[in-house]
Structures are given as C-alpha cells and as structure tokens.
Amino acid sequence: MNELLPDGGTIRKLWIGETDAYRDHLLRLDRDSRYRRFSGAVSDEVIARHAATANEIGVVVHGFFVDGTLRGAAELRPTGPLFQHEAEAAFSIEQPWQSHGVGTELLERTLLSARNRGVASLHMICLVDNQRMQQLARKFEADLKFDFGSVVGEVDPPRFTALSLMREVLADNHGIATAVFDAQWRLFKPA
After folding, report:
1. How many CA atoms lie within 13 A of 61 on its CB side?
2. pLDDT tens digits for range 43-67
3. Are the CB atoms for 94 and 71 separated by under 8 Å?
4. In this predicted model, which residue has the larger pLDDT, 154 or 78?
5. What pTM value is reported for the model?
6. In the 8-state DSSP scheme, what is residue 190?
7. Residues with Cβ within 8 Å of residue 147, at least 6 apart in sequence
8. Average of pLDDT values for 88-104?
9. Is residue 73 within 8 Å of residue 63, measured between CB atoms?
10. Element spanning 7, H or E
11. Four-residue CA torsion sign, 68, 17, 177, 170
C-alpha cells in the first residue's frame, strides 16, 4: 500500500452495488487479457454471470480506479466451504495500466484480506505463457507448480494480527471516503 499508482489511480474494495462496474471492466479487457484472466475464451454472458457473483459471501474484490472508472481488479474467492481456509486469487488489469505496479498493489491488498479472513493457502492459477502473473507471484514468494498447461502459485499468508486487522480497516475507511468523493466529483463534473 505504498507504491505510487499510475494516472492518480486508487485502490479500494468494491462495495455492494458495484458489480456492474466489475462487469464493465472485465468486458473492456482486450482479447489477450481476457483470455489470460479466464484461462480461455469466454463469452460476454459468462463474464456478466461471473461478475454478478462478486457480492457472494466470502468474495472480496479490490479495484483499481482511475477517475472513478474501474481499470483493474483482484478477486479473492473461497475455493470450498467458507471456513475451509483455502481461497483463489484472480487478477485483471486493462492494457494501458499493465506493468505499472497495479498488480503488485492489488496482490498486496488481496493478501491482507486473505490473512485477515484466516486463509491458510491462497492459490493463483494462470496459463504457462502468463509471465506477468508468474513474476507477480514470485515477487510474493509463491511456490509455483506447473500442471497441464497451467501454473499454480501458492502463497501461505501469515496469521492475522491486531495490526493487520487495523491496516485493513484503515484501507477500507480510506476507500469509502474515496468512493464518496468520486461519486460527488462525477455528479458535479462539468460536461
């Protein structure tokens, strides 16, 4: 939570009612980014159905916003029963904002959320040719395993502490203030 983001962007959690923004972001991904995010070709309808699940219990989505528009996202999703302590992380960043540190910041926030939810094993699955994702996983000391055309990165977040909980609360409070400011700015922005 300390790297300067491009274009004055901010990172915050998506709140209830922002699944349309998530859907729109995923639909804006270029062909290669969409293919890498979903490990294959998917239709617009599949993306819309997936984005609609972002408010399910246990799912946390952090977004990278530029001028109030979602341009990148990191999704933390339990992989089994809610209290199984395993989750998967998936990332999507629109082309102009790739390779500018956005993925690093999104993964840092995702790891904090995973830690504070008791996730003991976080999986990041990507295609073998997705070097950016593998590099990002290595940056956070993920254990990479190659498996039938995919790479599975596993990170074991440390146990939560009072300090890690406070960091997430402070980030959430900042995110709420930013969301309110962005909404007001869009309402009063000259046309």
Report:
1. 30
2. 999 999 999 999 998 999 999 999 8
3. yes
4. 78
5. 0.84
6. -
7. none
8. 93
9. yes
10. none
11. negative
> How do beta strands 60-66 and 10-13 pair?
antiparallel
pLDDT at 53: 95
User: Helix, strand, coil proportions of the chain in percent (round to 5)?
Assistant: 45, 25, 30
* Lowest mean pLDDT across 111-115, 124-128, 156-160: 156-160
Residue with tokens 């339990």: 78
Cβ-proximal residues to 43 (8 Å cutoff; 6+ apart), any chain = none
DSSP string, 84-135: G-EEEEEEEE-GGGTTSSHHHHHHHHHHHHHHHTT-SEEEEEEETT-HHHHH
CA gyration radius, the chain: 16
pLDDT in tens, 15-37: 888 999 999 999 999 999 999 99
Place of tokens 């996202």: 73
- The highest-confidence range among 47-61, 78-92, 115-129, by mean pLDDT, is 47-61
In angstroms, rounded to a whole number, what is the distance separating the alpha carbons of residues 71 and 14? 12
CB-CB neighbours of 10 under 10 Å = 18
